[in-house]
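>> received
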Amino acid sequence: MKKIVASILCFTLCAGMIAGCDDKKDTTKATEGTQPTQTESQADTESQADTESQADTESQADTESEGESTAKTDTTAVLSMGTGDIAINVYAMSNEVPGMIEEFFKRNPDMASKYKVTALVSNNDGNGYETKLNAALSAGGDIAPDLYVAEADYILPYTQGDLSSFAAPYSSFIDGVDGKITEADIAKYTVELGTNTSGELVALCYQCTGGAMIYSAKIAKEVFGGDDPATVEAAIGAGSGSWDKFIEAAGKLKEKGYATVSALGDLWNVCEKAAQTPWVVDGALKIDPQREKYLDLCKTFIDNDYTNDAAAWNESWYADMQGVGKDPQTNETRKCFCFFGPAWLINYVMGGQSTTEETGFGDWRVCQPPVGFWWGGSWLCVNKAAVENADKKAFLSKFVEWVTLDCTKDGLQYAWANGLMNENGTKDTVASGTVMKMSDGSMAFLGGQNPFDAFVKATAFASAKCKSLYDASLNGTWQNCGSAYGHGDKDKDTVIAEFKDAAAEIGLEV
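>> returned
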């Protein structure tokens, strides 16, 4: 997945709560209002230079990116919140968590007068954020973060890899954490990704990023005889775990003059996270059937002209969201039926493209996908050293629980899900199933539909079994294999053999 640049997901601190997921280009806006802008000044980063030079520059690359290279346009800002004497250091890749702290202080003025939070915010272009975070964790002392954020793309090194030793078990600073997870009905896959190899929970995600199918109601009605989710789900084989009905539906869409998906990457986002085994099992390469299916889907969709063959996170992809994409064979305008993604794809990507009735605003709907998946998310980690300090522990315990586990109407998740903590009224999916079930997610962008039911069901399909520490090295290579096979540049046996060669080069048994 190509990431959404941190700056586009940053709500101004005065807006309080922000929502979003991963970072990429400045092309999106919230669906219920104008795009938030970052108003913070750029930080003086010279003091970081010595520390950054010690960083391990081999940190994971952004390879969920349709095979594209990541532009190295690193930007850093330092934000300050609170007026107290007790210092708290935070590292984050966007203003999301700093915005939450700002809102937390508004609700808890006694904490604001006791603590002063300094947040280093850096996007991860060129692995800039990871490099700074790794260096600061290794340096320790005053420069080390007390609280830090890791995204789905690179969560495992901080929870199960070499850097996991820095993360404090949640049980060491939140009382009764297991019971609170059950009460809040926290999405299982998020807990799995936040659990270390000793079985201790060391990170929780505040988002829920189970993926659904986002489709055009007008096209659905014309092709399938109805635009309601039940009709469409029947047509595409929703929840079946199979692509057969979806491919059959693609043929019907083609007959009516529509592309089914915009880009091959739209299919990859599903296949990658639907895998039930990681790339590496017991030190050996494992090609999961869902990942291998991606190769076949690429070939089917290119050969049958079921896709506009756009490049995800590119102008051609956005054009399909606006209904003005092009058939690659005729170069004539051809509308695209669906996209696959979590709520953040609606709020922060599609919402910035389908802005009028003519470009699809109000026409989109949400239903279950044929194959379950998830995409993105951000996890909170607390430094073990910080928990040893009673004053810091008091802040971290209350704040982290309020963000991740509070399933009442006073918690951040309820306010976020119901659009109460940002000036745009943007409603987003959250990690707590309890909160989701008590929230109203209806959106004008979706013609008034409340998609929360679909997203809660989508979360039930989500599994962390697909993730491994080798994703950064292998995902992009596999996507390139799919493109080469799909476009007829190489046969299937050749691309698989070349992929195995690449895996062997990084020391895997093939």
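>> The two ends are 25 Å apart (CA to CA).
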